[in-house]
Design brief:
447 residues; alpha+beta; Dihydrolipoamide Transferase; Chloramphenicol Acetyltransferase; 7-stranded mixed β-sheet; 5-stranded mixed β-sheet; 22 strands; 24% strand; CAT-like_dom_sf
């Protein structure tokens, strides 16, 4: 007996995926739920676990080939069944060089069939068993890319840390952990990989390489966005000295109570979520063909994340109903899981407004591109100290050192006028300048 491994549903709008790497070779034994193949979509990269235990009898979709949702990726045989010898990449009958896309073995799946597959008890990529001959088992062959061991020299590493280490080519045995009990965290792996990343980047000089799938997706989305909407960027400056002082007072207690680091981004996110309720045209979608405007009834904030594989934009849902601690936890959670590759495809969909922290790389301001079908994206610049003219207690002009920041709003001029954008930014900057977050931070009278 043998079982077919299907490409499962990977998100609401995902219709296909590219096989990036097989984690097992033909002839190898595989356990149920053991990572079998890594697949990339236009939303996220993910590992597909094996729905069966047995021997990997054949691989039907080779690496760098595209498969539709529901397509047969591989066949797993019982350990007493025959195993096909590994086929040469160019000799796979179903995937000649001029046909890099595959369809389901049963033909294209209808939407209803896909939904049924996704909701069934066997939603991880399986179909009914098929008969195969049963001569002696072929000896397992050496795998091309063995997964990193769970334990190295007696130390335990989570699957996500192992995956990140494999992607960044980091030897976990040499990484010092900063987590509880010395456990290695994703940030530890990224820090260890930093020198290697610099070396790899400089090594690209004078070369021509194939664009990674995520780079091609980003390029397509950016071009599509500029071709779809009329985009303008408006920049306002805000004095965030009060927030800087509040954060300095509260960050240690905040981390101890809520278990998450207090950055400036949650303050900005809360101000944005509140402003979107007052200015709903920035929390909307415009269908020019239909002549309709959809005003969303919730604020789902999307945050641009500089992930190892490229720009990704996970969503914190119902941000308008969260307090400062909830926003801090939500942002930290989706950002961490985006960077280590564990974010789900559906968590990259459904945003109604985006925020990009360009200040994290020292930028003062930028002209962000809208994440369609949204109508606005806010760029958050670096906080810098500058001499500013302020009003003293007696109404006199005084020169003082203040913490200043630029906010850059790119908006869709088809729906949002410049005055609308200005009023929205005034609401955001007014909230930030007032710095009235003491209650959220557990401070009484600023103490």
């Amino acid at each position: 007996m043998s079982e077919s491994v299907l490409l499962p549903a990977l998100g609401e709008s995902v219709t296909e995926g590219t096989v990036i790497r097989w984690l097992k070779a033909v002839g190898e034994r595989v356990s149920i739920d053991e990572p079998l193949v890594e697949v990339s979509t236009d939303k996220v990269d993910t590992e597909i676990p094996s729905p069966f235990a047995g021997i990997l009898a054949s691989i039907l979709v080779p690496e760098d080939h595209i498969a539709d949702i529901g397509a047969v990726l591989a066949v797993i045989a019982a350990e007493t069944a025959a195993v096909e010898p590994p086929a040469d990449r160019d000799s796979l009958g179903d995937f000649p060089a001029n046909r890099p896309r595959t369809a389901s073995a049963r033909g294209p799946l209808s939407r209803g069939a896909q939904n049924e597959l996704a909701s069934s008890g066997r939603d991880r990529g399986l179909t009914s068993p098929t008969e195969t001959p049963a001569p002696p088992v072929v000896e397992p062959v050496e795998t091309k890319a063995p997964p990193v061991a769970t334990q190295v020299a007696g130390r335990y590493f989570t699957p996500l840390v192992r995956k990140l280490a494999r992607e960044l080519k980091v030897d976990l045995a040499s990484v010092a952990g900063t987590g509880i009990g010395g456990r290695v965290r994703g940030d530890d792996v990224r820090a260890a990989a930093a020198p290697a990343v610099i070396a790899a980047t400089t090594g690209l000089r004078g070369t021509v390489v194939k664009a990674p799938r995520i780079r091609a997706v980003i390029a397509s989305r950016m071009r599509e966005s500029l071709n779809t909407s009329t985009q303008l960027t408006q920049v306002h400056e805000v004095d965030v000295t009060g927030i800087v002082r509040l954060r300095e007072k509260a960050k240690a207690q905040f981390a101890a109570v809520h278990g998450v680091k207090l950055t400036y981004l949650p303050f900005i996110a809360q101000a944005v979520a509140e402003a979107l309720k007052v200015h709903p045209m920035l929390n909307a979608a415009f269908d020019e063909a239909a002549g309709t405007i959809t005003y969303h009834d919730a604020e789902h904030l999307a945050f641009a994340v500089d992930a190892p594989k490229g720009l990704m934009v996970p969503v914190v849902r119902d941000a308008g109903s969260l307090n400062l601690a909830g926003l801090a936890a939500g942002i930290a959670d989706v950002a961490a899981r985006t960077r280590d590759g564990s974010i789900k495809a559906e968590e990259l969909n459904g945003g109604t407004f985006s925020i990009t922290n360009i200040g994290s790389v020292g930028a003062l301001f930028d002209t962000p591109i809208i994440n369609q079908p949204q109508v606005g994206i806010l760029g958050v610049g670096s906080i810098v100290k500058r001499p500013m003219v302020v009003t003293g207690p007696d109404g006199d002009d005084l020169l003082a050192i203040r913490h200043m920041m630029y906010l850059c709003l790119t908006y869709d001029h088809r729906l949002v006028d410049g005055a609308d954008a200005g009023r929205f930014l005034q609401t955001v900057t007014g909230r930030l300048a007032a710095a009235s977050f003491e209650a959220d931070l557990g401070l009484v009278n600023g103490q």
